[in-house]
Amino acid sequence: MRLEARLAANWPPLAWLARCSKDGERVVVFHGPRVEIGDGFACEAVWDGDFEQGDLDRAAVVAGSGVRASGGEVTLVSSTSTVDRLHSHDGPDGSLVSNSLPCLLSALDAHLVRGYQRYQRDILSIGRGVDRYRRFIPTSAGRVRLTYFQNLVWNGDELAIRDKPRQEVDLSDFDRYRDYLRDTFGAIAENMRDGARRHPLSMLGTLSSGYDAATVTVLAAETGCDEALCFSVTGTGEPDSGEPIARALGIRPLVIPIDAWRSMPEAIDDRRPPPEAPFFAGSPKRALIPYKGAEAHLMGRVLVTGFYGDSVWGLETEDLTPDMRRLTPSGLTFTEYRLRAGFIHCPPAYWTGRQLGDVVAISRSDEMRPWVIGKTYQRPIARRIVEEAGVPRKAFGMRKRAGVGTALFEAREFLTPASMSDYMAWLRRHRRSLGERRVPLVASPAVDRAMWSGIRLLRTASREARGIPRFGGSRAHKRLDRKVRSLYRGARYLRAYVFLWAMDRSQDAYPMAELREASFERTASRRAA
């Protein structure tokens, strides 16, 4: 079994699609211009091993994804996290696998089922953990499999799932855990800077006034990271830049206004989707779209984030099972966007996710008591790592804030004017396939904003009513709460199809001329034979 790489120069830089055919001993990988091609492998990844060997299929820690041919089979490698995934479809002639769902759908000449109303539930089900999420979603070409934290293996006849190599780390105390994090960061730093890469990478930290981003940026700084993204305020408007931490670490803060993305001029056409589309195509709920404003700093970077740190480093964690259940789905919205922006997403908290109980045991041990402060927002491992790096205690982790991730889907202005115009045109174009009864005859942005403002006022009143002991009696309050929730759901009619729109518009970024040409060549050779 061998790999054959074919450049798709017009695709997003880090996208790839593997065609696994039953009629040959090769797997053809179509790829964007910044995907690395080596001897028997193709990847947009970093891992804790030698890059030139290309052995990402044997690595316990991988950020990004890739494909490797070895030992008579081809392994399609996913990230060691649940903020990235592989997408695959099995057909009579073989299988297609991609790190992008829009890319896979374009290759299949398919689209999402527009009458299906549960895509949001399906995508966000990964929050229940890697053993309980919904593995298949419907499309017009049949089911598509979503694969997190596992690899796929093609043996020439079928695609099978294989667990990633397990690495049991000695986590008996803080020093051993700290050494493991330091050593793994060092191995990844060597991999990403390897001279054999056509496009060497550099690390970029993230900072806020919270625990998790500060922790991973301290670790990154030890391996040469000298810059970190900072956003001026949180998604709710509180100051949160993390600049004091950057100064203490001696790294340069790249401060980005949280709404900078809204003023970035960008033409919307068949090749360039609306700016919100890649984010909503990754996850239909929370959006990390403020990172769009930092796009000039993202190409060729390994972006180190603190996602999953709340579960791994928090004292309040109760579920210690190893299937990586999450409190929030944050981070998923990078899944598609990062392929366009050209960066690899690296969340180190996942590296020992299968040993969650061991890490939490360290947090609760006697040796960590000096780093337990506050009443509810307590993360002693994170605090110790950051304080021992020279960051003053009061500079971080003093109060839990909302973070930069905003619930854009629920915002009053959830799309820019140009994007809203594009969305409205899409709704009119697909009204019949969406179902006439589900799409109101009057669906305007002005009506949506007015309704949403009213709903937000009612929700605020409902929340405040909970703190008033005799607010018309408990039954009256419950009726108000139910009514508000019903209105809240009903008011989303204009927004109900954002995920479908975003997916359709993201598919436009994947012209399939190269794939069609390759398929024609294969068909012609079979006829000649």
Mean pLDDT rating = 86
Structural class of the secondary elements? alpha/beta
- Taken as a percent bin, the fraction of beta residues is 15-25%
The geometry reads as globular
What's the alpha carbon Rg, rounded to whole Å? 24 Å
> Based on the structure given, which CATH architecture of the largest domain is correct?
3-Layer(aba) Sandwich
Number of strands: 18
Helical fraction: 25-40%
Q: Ends: how far apart?
A: 21 Å
Determine the number of helices (DSSP H or I, runs of at least 4 residues): 16
Which class of the largest domain in CATH terms? Alpha Beta
Tally of distinct domains? 3
Uncertain regions: pLDDT < 50 for 5+ in a row?
A: 468-473, 520-529
Q: Sheet with the most strands?
A: 7 strands, mixed
Strand arrangement, major sheet: 1-3-2-9-8-11-10
CATH topology group of the largest domain? Rossmann fold
Task: Give a verbal description of the structure.
With 529 residues, this protein is of the alpha/beta class. The chain has three domains: 2-165, Glutamine Phosphoribosylpyrophosphate, subunit 1, domain 1 (4-Layer Sandwich), CATH 3.60.20; 174-395, 3-Layer(aba) Sandwich (Rossmann fold); 410-507. The protein has 16 helices and 18 strands. A seven-stranded mixed beta sheet has the order 1-3-2-9-8-11-10. Helix 5 links the parallel strand 15 and strand 16 (252-256). Residues 468-473 and 520-529 have low confidence and may be disordered.
